[in-house]
Amino acid sequence: MPLHFRSAWFKTLGQLVAVLAAAVLLGWLLGHVWLVLTVAALGVVAWHYWRLRKVLLRLTARQRIQSVHGEGVWNELDRLLYRGQSEMRTRKRHLLDLLRAYRAAADALPDAVVVVDRNTQRVQWFNKAATTLLGLQRSSLGTSLGDRLQPLPLSHWLAAGRNAEPMLDAASPVDPELRLNLRLISYSDEYWLLVARDVSKMLRLEQMRQDFVANVSHELRTPLTVVHGYLDMLDPTDFPDWAPILSEMQKQSQRMTQLVEDLLTLSRLEAQDSLPDESVAMAPMLATLKREAEALSQRRHNLVVQDEAGFDLWGSNKELHSAFSNLVSNAVRYTPVGGTITLRFAREGDGAVLSVRDTGYGIPQAHLPRITERFYRVSTSRSRESGGTGLGLSIVKHVLNLHQARLEVESEVGQGSLFSIHFNADRVHPREPDSTPRPSSQSQIA
Ligand code: ADP
């Protein structure tokens, strides 16, 4: 027990003893000791009840407790309550300041942030940007987010929860010109954070970049075709002195023409949201790929084709052929003489896989994550020597995205590489003698 509390306690006990002693003395003088003592004891009890009532009243009325000076346990109790109350007030003020600072920071964010209840999908809180980007108002608090943001395809997305696509691009319900990137972050068992970012400027810049590359490639195509055509007409054997220069010029103009063609292909693919949905007959496709590989290899490699799926694909014949032939041509170009290239088409679960395996130079692990980037080459000199443009795998990636397929690459330096393309179940159909149109239930390509 602290010292000041012990002294207050003794003080109160002393007062009690003094009152009782005075009552005994007065009783003795009046000749009614027990009566006066009882009245005095009852008076002391009543006084304590009165003090207790005062404390309870102040606590229940949530009154501000005043600082007191007197002595005794009741004054000590008042002092303790006063101290507890002031400490709580200071802590509350500190918390409020902190909350205000967090709110100000959240309001200063350029991204819209909305806290959503996971179970009811109701809006719990949002920042200022959520009003400008998503049109949420005070009245939106406690209402369903899906209903509030009707034009956005949110309902399915929220319902899918953790399994949903991590991002969604959509037009803002406030202004259709604004393009938003939405992310749903599950940060606790009870709440989600919906973050919406205005990506209109970024998309405009991306569009400008795509248009620029497409226009430049287009403008370069005609002069290049003329130069290439004239150079082709010149036979180096007719000009022995110029022969090495002429053949180098022909080689470089061929490379530039291929580069422009690949850039135009990429621009075309980037501008497309979907591709023609045809039946892609895989037996003739594999035969064509084999012929092309033989022409490129000139009998320098062993070529093996394994057609095990018994399935055909849904997709664009032209673009899928371009993607497959890019992989086959890479396998031939990056495999030394005498190596083996195996082209395999097989079932994989309900889907299918097309793989190109080679026993070539291989790719160091550190380069694998980046090889589908434009102009990314593991070895620039080897790529140039073999007539590469650095755009082949980028084209493959775009074609596969448009077919909801994915590319996997395994490789070991000096041992070879395995490029596999995985197709979903809705991209395959049993092989039929005649190519039939795809039933409407399967006909959409996102
Ligand atoms: P490129 O026209 O240079 O071949 P790609 O986009 O087709 O461009 O390939 C990117 C890079 O990936 C190539 O430069 C090459 O270094 C590497 N690469 C692609 N396929 C293979 C392969 N089968 N074996 C080894 N390296 C490969």
Overall description:
Helix content is 50%, strand content 18%. With 446 residues, it is of the alpha+beta class. It folds into four domains: 3-99, no CATH class; 109-198, PAS domain (Beta-Lactamase, 2-Layer Sandwich), CATH 3.30.450.20; 207-271, Orthogonal Bundle (Helix Hairpins), CATH 1.10.287; 278-444, Histidine kinase-like ATPase, C-terminal domain (Heat Shock Protein 90), CATH 3.30.565.10. A hairpin with a 4-residue loop joins strand 4 (179-186) and strand 5 (191-198). Helix 8 (243-271) packs parallel to helix 12, helix 9 runs parallel beside helix 10 (317-333) and helix 10 runs antiparallel to helix 12. The longest helix is centred in the N-terminal third of the chain and has 36 residues, at 73-108. Adenosine-5'-diphosphate binds at residues 326, 330-331, 334, 358, 360-363, 371, 376-379, 383, 388-394, 417.
Please provide a brief summary of the model.
The chain is α+β, with helices and mostly antiparallel strands and 446 residues long. Helix content is 50%, strand content 18%. It has four domains: 3-99, no CATH class; 109-198, 2-Layer Sandwich (Beta-Lactamase), CATH 3.30.450; 207-271, Helix Hairpins, CATH 1.10.287; 278-444, Heat Shock Protein 90.
Strand and helix layout:
Elements: H1 3-30, H2 33-60, H3 73-108, E1 112-117, E2 123-126, H4 128-134, H5 145-148, H6 154-160, E3 167-171, E4 179-186, E5 191-198, H7 200-233, H8 243-271, E6 278-280, H9 282-297, E7 302-307, E8 311-315, H10 317-333, E9 340-348, E10 351-358, H11 380-385, H12 392-402, E11 406-412, E12 416-423, E13 428-430
Parallel strand pairs: 7-9
Antiparallel strand pairs: 1-2, 1-5, 3-4, 4-5, 6-8, 8-13, 9-10, 10-12, 11-12
The chain binds adenosine-5'-diphosphate.
